[in-house]
Structure formats: C-alpha cells, structure tokens
Amino acid sequence: MAEEDVPVEVAVGGGEPDEAEVEIPGVLPVLPLKETVVFPDAVAPLAIGEARSIRLIDEVLNRPERMLVLVASRDPELTEPPPDRLHDIGVAAVVQRMVRVPDGTVRILAQGLRRVRIGDYVRAEPFLEAHVEEVPDRAERTTEVEALARNLQGVFTRMIALVPHLPDELGIAVANMEDPTALSYLISSSIRLTLEERQGLLEEVDLAARLRRLTELCTRELELLELGAKIQSDVQTDLEKGQREFFLRQQLKAIREELGEGGDEGRDIEELRERLAEVAPPEEVRVAAERELARLERLPAEGAEHGVVRTYIDWILAVPWNVTTEDDLDLPRARAVLDEDHYDIEKVKDRIIEQLAVARLKPDAQGPILCFVGPPGVGKTSLGQSIARALGRRFARISVGGVRDESEIRGHRRTYVGAMPGTIVRAIRDAGAMNPVLMVDEIDKMGADVRGDPSSAMLEVLDPAQNGTFRDHYLDLPLDLSRVLFLCTANVLETIPGPLLDRMEVIRLSGYTEEEKLHIARRYLLPRQIAAAGLPKGLLRVTDAGLRTVIGEYTREAGVRQLERRLGAIARRVARRVAEGDATRLSAGRAVVRDILGPERIHNEVKRRTSEPGVATGLAVTGAGGEILFVEAMVMPGGGKLTVTGQLGDVMRESAQAAVSYVRARSARLGLDLADDFFSTHDVHLHVPAGAVPKDGPSAGVTMATALVSALSGRNVSADVAMTGEITLTGQVLPIGGVKEKVLAARRAGIRGVILPKLNGESLADLPDGLAEEMRITLADRIEQVLDVALEDGPARR
Q1: Domain 518-597: which CATH class?
Q2: Which pLDDT value is given to residue 491?
C-alpha cells in the first residue's frame, strides 16, 4: 500500500468521560447530520466530507472538552443546511477518535451524552455554533414504567432471534439492563427506524410515552420479521416438496415400466411437459397447465375425465402465448400493396396509411377498431387481407353472421360435454401469433336469443381498454388481445348495437361507377377468372365494349361480385372450347358476350313504371347498396281514408302522413284544382311495391309527395329523374344520408337526373370523379322546387 494511501489516525485525549460528571457548556459547535439521529449513551461512527464540518471537527479537537452538538437536518438533500433547516433537539456528544482519510474526508467516533435544545445561533461561519440547554427526561420509576420496560425487553429479545446481524450479546445486555432510560436509548439505536421516528423518540421527554412508542415500533418490526421468516419457510417447503414430487414421479415411472404398464402414457406426459417448456406461457397459464398435468398423471387412461383434461392441455399448448410477428411499417411499400390489390377507394387507403404512420411513430399506441361498411362485393374482406400483407402480419377471419349463442364468442365451460373454446381463441390458434389481423365479418348480422347475446361478448373483445385480459369460458385464463388488429365488416349500421358501434371507427365503402367497374374487371377480375379456368395467357381477351355489355346488361349491383361470376362464365366457355381441341384466340366483344351469356338479364323498367301519373322514382340505401324505389299513389272515391302498404316501417308511415297533410294544406298553391271537400270524399292509397321486403327510413317523404301530386294533377313524373329527401309539414326538404350510394344507384338504373336536399350539397364532394358532371343534380330546399323539376308539363302520357 502506498504511504499516502494509509489513513492517518489522530488519538484524542484520555479515556471515556464519566457522563454524570460531564458538564455541558452553554455554547457548543453544531454538526448537522444527514439521515442520522444519535441518541444519548450511544457511540456513533460518522463520516464527514463537507469543508465546513471538517473545520468544525478541527476546532472541537483543539478544545479541552472536545464537545459538540449532533443534530439531524430537516432536509437531507442540503449539503450545508442553514440553521432554520435543522431540528431544535439534538445530542451533546464527545469526539472519542478521529481518522483522516487520503480522499480528504475524516471519520470520527462520537459518544452521545445528553439531550439538548438548540437556542440562538451565535455564528454561522466558518461553522455553526449555538446556545444549548439540557433537556432532561421526566422519568419516575413507577410500576407502569417498569412494566413497559420489561415488555420492551421481551419484544426486543424475540427480534434478536430473527435478525442475523444483531449479536446475541446485545440481547444479554438488554435483558440485564435495569435503567429504563438507558434501555430505551440502546434499543432506539439498534432497530431499523425512519428518520422521523428516530427524531420523535429523541424529542420525547416523557419516559413512559417513549417506552410505549418504542414498544409499538418494535412490535411492528417484529411482525414484519416473523412474516418474512414465514415466507422464507414456505419457499423452502415448496422447493423441498417439488424435489420430493420429482423423485416420487421418477420412482412411479420406473415401477410402471417394470410392470409393463403405462409406458406410453408416461412418455406422453413428459412430452407434454417438454412442449409446455417450449411454449413458455405466462406464469398464470403455466401454473394452470402444471396443475392439469398433475391431474392427468393421476387419472387412469381409460377414464372419461382423462380425455377431457388432455384436450384442455392440448388447447393451452395450441395457443401461441409468446409468438408475435414484427410489423413492416414501410409506408411506401404498404401503399404499393394496397394499390396493387384495390382500385380507387383513396380515402380508405389514406386512413390505413395514417394508422400505419402512427404505429411507426408510437409503437405502443392502441389503434381504433376499424369497421368497413358497404354493400356486398366492394372488397371489404379482401381489404383486410391486404392490410395484413402490408403489415407483414398473419391474417385470420371469423364470420359472426347469424351467430346467436354467446358461447360461439366466449367458448363453452368445461362442465359441458363436447366443450371447446370460442371462435376468438380458435382464430388466434389458427393465426399462430398473438398479433394477427383478425377480420370479424358480418358483424351487423349477429342475433340474440335465450342462449345469450353474442354482441355483448364482442364488447369486451373489441374494447382496447378491456381486451388485454379477455377470458374465454373454456380456457378460463387471461388472453391478451390488445395486440390484435381487429377489422370488422358490415352492410348496414342500423342493426349494430349502439355500445358496440361506439367502440369502432366506421369507414364507408360505397359502390362503384361503370368506369370503375371496367378498370376493376380489366385489372383484377378477368385475370383471376382466366387463371381459375386454367386458360393459357393471351388466349382470351374481352374488349372494353364486351366488359361494358357485361356490366350494363347482365349485372346491376353496387359491388363487383356478380360481374366476376359473369366473367367466370365467359372464361369457362373458352376453357371448354380449348378442352375440345379448339385453341384459337378469342376476342370477346359485345356480340360474343351476348352469345355466351344469353338474353339480356337487366331491364330498364323506369320508363314503363312511370308511364302513368302517380308513380315517382325514389332512392334508398339497403344492405346491398343504393337502390331505386318506386312509390305509387292512387286517389279514388271514398271517405277520406289514407292507406299505406308495402310493409313499411313506422318512419316511412310518418313520412306518408306528412306528405298527404302537406298536399291537402297546399293544394291551391301547388296548382291543384280540387274541390274543398275533395279529400273528405276521396281515399288516398300510397304503395311501395316489393311488399315482401321490409322498408323503413326517413328519406321517402319527397318521393311520396311527388307521386301524390302527380296522381292528383294527372301529370307524369319524368322517367329520367329520381329523388330523395324528407318532407316537413311546411314543405321544407330535409337532408338525408347515403348520398353517394343513392346517386350511384340512379346511374346504374340509367337515370341522369337526381334531386337532392340542398343541405346535402357538401356531400357531392364524395362522389367519384366525373360523376357529378355526368348527372343532372338539382339541390332543393322546398317541395315546390322538387315538383318543378320532377313533373312533366302537359297532359299525362297514356
């Protein structure tokens, strides 16, 4: 060791002072202590590093009494606390020994003498010095004090047996100590207490109160020590039990092999244990699996319960508890994948890219549950597959359409025969990862009956705040669904329960225009059907005229599902020719398409239906997308009765009442030459054909009023005009929903004129490019404007 590294020890004075003979001076240096309280009669080793405190020690060592005051700081964070940040009660102490350390600090050994109160400070530099006054105990040797002291001795003796670092000699010293004051200070210095608790004991001048408080603190510490000892004992017992079970299991295995029984079963159990170790599920799952494995080991292989337990364990091992795939958050690549799989729907693609951007900037962000709403055949399910491909995640799909049993979602409890997990767990198993893209198809078609309400079970599944601990009834174990990207599909929103809909962000996919269908057929549908038919590349070509013929004459739908079927029929006809030996290249134009598909399937009946007064063409939105809707009005002699037919809901019936009331009240203003008692001597019948189909909604009022005025005036409604909007009793036209779907429906039906509520004008921005210019769109805010556009001039056509 280098010379300069050797600590320098300074011997101070003679032997230990007799405390009873030591007189405390009136003014003493004050040494602040960090997180330390020194008690009277206690010997405390202290490390001193602050320059001010080192000067104080040097000064104290030069004085004959070598005495100072040790006091705790109220703020341990302060290096040199001012007087107002020190406690008022401290301990007068004598410095017994001092050692200088090479790093510049000093170590002292101080012996506490008596408690003192610090008065006014006489100086603050170069160190603190203050007036001090002794604070003696109020100590009377009463029976209570004696009893408290003996009880404290017993509690502390029990503590020593549980604390390894407390020597047995300390217990002997405490047991033989007769002075209660000295006993209290010795124990206060020996046990683990907070700074506030130590200072409180030092400041307590009533000996009985100090002994009582010290007994409470020792009892609390004793309870903690006993609890810790019990925990340690339990852990040791569990380890010994596990070792004992292992040896017994090995012996049982050897006995079975010796008897020629259960060898395969024993190997099967070991294989299950190995699989469990490989799966490495969460602790709660592992404990449950180990418990069931122990049961399985005790059950006879031929018992019915054996198969139930084995199936349950297999399901636990089938769930990919710790398997996840890494997301590919390359936004340009994701956009390229979406563009490759889907034509147009730019707003939907932008929303998906936005979600991927958020996931890239904040990986732990919980994204919303997206619900794609639109008619059949617009690509909702395939959009989910594209999202999974863009993210690099695995894809799983479940269909909840027609599900009426809650157990389909949550699973059956194991008490039932043939119980199995619900569709959520099965989808996670099939995906093989805990973070797949899970498509919940047809969520608007879930039902409810006596077996439960599956939509209520879906509330927890689709709630990011709850699905982190989803419990399947069969597994009865927490399953973390928070990393699953849930996507839902629906045709309509009205049948989705409100609380469930509130958990989802709705993204609408409307139908396609003829031009969009042409591009989709050219880029996606036709190549797919040619490949499905096994045709060589380039053998079949369908011209644009042929595709438009298929679209316009053989399909009328919002999506492209029927269109793909018709193209499949063309490809199969060519495949038949090739199989029969005719491998000539075929270019399918309008004539070839008609020859293969047969007579025209779609007929434009708008002109025929509106050829007589009293028939108006309305627009509606159904689960299949936008549709045209004919409303017929008939006026006949009677008693003023209103009849509404066509299986209409309450909302449409109210619209009919409002339309009739408005026409009756404004007949003169509308140019109807009617007698004053006309409506009391005539019946009105409003009918919406296709009565087998339930109809409801708030957008047929304008159409009903137009049909009624047409019937009363004898003027035909234009066959090239369709309308939508709700009517009030004052003749105002109120806004409606589904503008894009309704305009597309009119376009598919060959109608070029559409009347919309004026308040829906902003919705025209959602129409596909060029559609608004192609259609004659009229925005009306009163029924008179609707009638001016819809009714033809002159007498009715016959």
Answers
A1: mainly alpha
A2: 84
